[in-house]
Request: fold
Amino acid sequence: MRWYWIDRFLEFESGRRAKAVKNVSLAEDHLHDHFPGYPVMPNPLVIEGLAQTGGLLVCEYNQFREKVVLAKVPKARFHCLATPGDTLTYTTTVDYIRRDGAMVTATSHIGDRLQAEMEIVFAHLDGELGQKTLFDPASLLQMMRILRGFEVGHAADGSPLRDPAWVGGEADPEQSGTT
Amino acid sequence: MPTKDEIFEKIRDALVEALGVDDDEVTPEATLVGDLGAESIDFLDIVFRLEKAFDIKIPRGELFPEDVLTNPEYVHDGRVTEAGLAELRSRMPFANLDEFAKNPIVQDFGSLLTVADMCRFIEGKLELTG
Reply:
């Protein structure tokens, strides 16, 4: 899976808040069509990046055992466009995590400047819908590892976040997710 | 315990935020699905906001008993049976099911719920929790 719209986690407090960065680069192909001679990051991809930040936060809360999908964006406001060379800092804060879904409040900043703010609702796909393999929950765990979430992550009690290691069998909890 | 007006206002605010409708569209008689355009994912959102606004818990199926509507004991050929109607009435004392009972097609159930039903539901919950 290569649909990554964030590059790395800066902070990750289990069940509460996560911060990630997205670097906008002219090496991204789509910018040359959006728009020709005037490259700007498409705002829907900002939404996707915020959804990935918040979605992983929600998914980690249940140790990556469920499929978390973006379901609804009740409101979103964009204040300016992001351009190549910008580093976007995404912050997502949990409003609710329930058995059937979750909601986060999310912001995107360029430096100190607020670029976008929104609410994002996720659905947890349970056994009924979850039988069809939209994607394997293990792929979200892999994404979390690549984004170094376990390196910066903390559980609610402040202890370092542990890689669940139940998925795939290859992760050694003693080697990953340590300070 | 908040007044009926306060309850209505909080519900109205939750629906405006969740459904993107205007204040004045949210009348007591308005149906969530038919008049306000709510879809299934919106119910998740609405329940979150109600829990937050009133500091209560609304377990899945309490406001909208989807488990009854998908139970073969209670539904035959897309219609809710007498047993199913009885179960719905006992689960949803805040709603008036008489109209639905005249022609109880499962597909139509979603269009039943009004804003006034939600007010009664919340009033009932708040009385229980004190």
Notes: Helices of chain B lie at 4-19, 40-54, 66-69, 82-91, 98-102, 106-109, 115-129. The interface with chain A takes residues 17-18, 20, 41-42, 44-45, 48, 51-52, 60 of chain B (CB under 8 Å).
